[in-house]
Structure formats: structure tokens, C-alpha cells
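Sorry to interrupt, but I need a hand with the structure work. Please put the record directly below this note.
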Amino acid sequence: MQALHLLALEPIAETAADPNSYGFRPKRSTADALQQCFHVLCRGCSPQWVLEGDIKGCFDHISHQWMLNHVFTDKVVLQKWLKAGYIEKDPFQKVLAALP
């Protein structure tokens, strides 16, 4: 079921996504991100600073209500997935973020 939703939603997400976003994107790599950095930073009027971040715990704390309001998919199925939990290294893990 998740694979079918991915096939339907990925083209929509890719057309709406930031063209300079590289994390967890299909057909994008670290080399693509480095190439973009080079093109932006090699100019005479380049930015002085670069911000790189990895938001620890993002998926542990993302608002399920926000996702239900903004993700274009079947809301009933999405709500079930958000509550489903996951398996990591064999034991079942409950979802930390809860629906209101």
C-alpha cells in the first residue's frame, strides 16, 4: 500500500519541492549537493556563510496534525500509518509523536 502511494505522490512532491533540496530525494546525491554549492560559492558575490543542518529528532516530533492538514493523500490511510509504529532491529517501536 505504501509503495502504491509513493508511486502516486512522488511525482507531485518532486514538482513542488525545493530544487536545491538534496536529502532523501530520488536521483539526488551528495555529489549533486556539492556541485550546487560550488556553483553558488564560486562567484565574486557569493554568500559569506553556509548553513548546514541535520535536525535531530525531526521525525520523532513532527506534528501529525500538520501532516494530515498538508500532505495530499488519503487522510484515513495516512492517519493509520502515523499511528502504526515501526520495526527497528527486530523489536516493535511505538510512535513517539501522537495525534491530538
Remarks:
- The chain has a mean pLDDT of 84.
- The CA atoms of residues 1 and 88 lie 20 Å apart.
